[in-house]
Amino acid sequence: MKYQSTRGKAPVLDFDDVLLAGLARDGGLYLPQSWPEFSAAEIRAMRGLPYAELAVRVMRPFVAGCLNDGELARLCAESYAGFAHPAVAPLRQLGHNQWVMELFHGPTLAFKDYALQLVGRLFDHVLKKKGRRVTIVGATSGDTGSAAIEACRDRAAVDIVILHPRGRVSEVQRRQMTTVLSANVRNVAVDGTFDDCQDLVKALFNDQAFRDELNLSAVNSINWARVMAQIVYYFAAGIALGAPDVPMSFAVPTGNFGNVFAGYAAKLMGLPIDRLIVGSNTNDILTRFFEGGIMRTDGVVPTLSPSMDIQVSSNFERLMYLALDGDGGAVDKLMGEFRAHGAMVMPQGAWTAMRQVFEAYRFDDEATLSAMRALKRSTGETVDPHSAIGIAAGLKGHSRKDATMVALATAHPAKFPDAVEKATGTRPALPPHLADLFQRPERMDTLANDATALKGYVRAFAGRNRA
Ligand SMILES: *Cc1c(COP(=O)(O)O)cnc(C)c1O
Question: Which residue of 105, 205, 335, 337 pairs with 84 in a disulfide if CB–CB is 3.0 to 4.6 A?
Fold first, then answer.
């Protein structure tokens, strides 16, 4: 399989180089040159497969030429073996034709584990083959850092340094990162805000000599391999609920558009998806876009669903490229407009095509809390604020059209205990594998908000393997 950039000017790459590159050199995002499509008979033949084996069937065409079936099967088996539920991504019924898929049984209790557990292993596998090492540097406001650390811990070809703003992440979130004591992991608490942390990371990546010296890399959500691994659970839900013979819709709490774009990819691959329903919080750039055809950024407002507090949805560029029939020049022009003016107008035809599949709804904190309360009352289920937005968006979509609806639950309620307690009156307990989180020893270093100090720190840590 070959991959091309959404802006049409970067070199065409194989899977392994797309994995390591992340962002394309022309600023675009990589997509496969053609979409593998499964026939109805092939989808039927996936019924009953364990999650890790289904993952091999779904992803095999994307890695063709880089990984053989045996290698992919081993990596998938290892990636999902540690999940806390035997079904990996179990479904629960909420009402007539209404379901929720729980994507929070991985090590850090958020859906990002489903992709990152595999991506960490893919990195290690490809780097070892090439005889290379990388240093992953990232900033986190909470969820992504712990998922990346769990994905990279103890990998032989990877060192990872994660920055977080000192005293500004929740104690659960901090401990999920700082209690990982593996030799290849470092946590840095920065005296500053999340934006300061992001600026520090940018400063390191912008120093080309430093970047080359330590082979800096990132595992952010624009990496194609993350999208690829997320396609699997759409197939898992679809097949369990009757695909290819029963069509269904998915409702997805959305920030960077990576998760819901994986649903669109599943549709292109032959899964009978009717609609994709985007749920947003007060930071509703996507909802406003699907309502009016204009993408316009606004200030970010902190909400109860912090992992969706985003005003630029980077993965949206992938949908745009497909809706513009693969015209990289047109994507480049629109993204340029967006960067310069904070707004872009989608050509009418592309917007209409998107609207045939996508619809979107927004929920402010009040509506999120009342959705959590209502769900608890009607079904007994306790959900986190992100999942609540997905479920509430699904209900709105369902009321328009009564067909099978699957909402994706993206975080475990114990990850956001304050919001859950506020909504339901009960504080959720951590699951057994994290029950002793507050007793585990922590390790982290504290640094000033200073790029020179950070470079010295990263060099001293990651350079030890390069002497
Ligand atoms: C990252 C995240 C999201 C948003 O997913 P995108 O792929 O960025 O749209 C939603 N919920 C939770 C809990 C997350 O961690």
Answer: 105
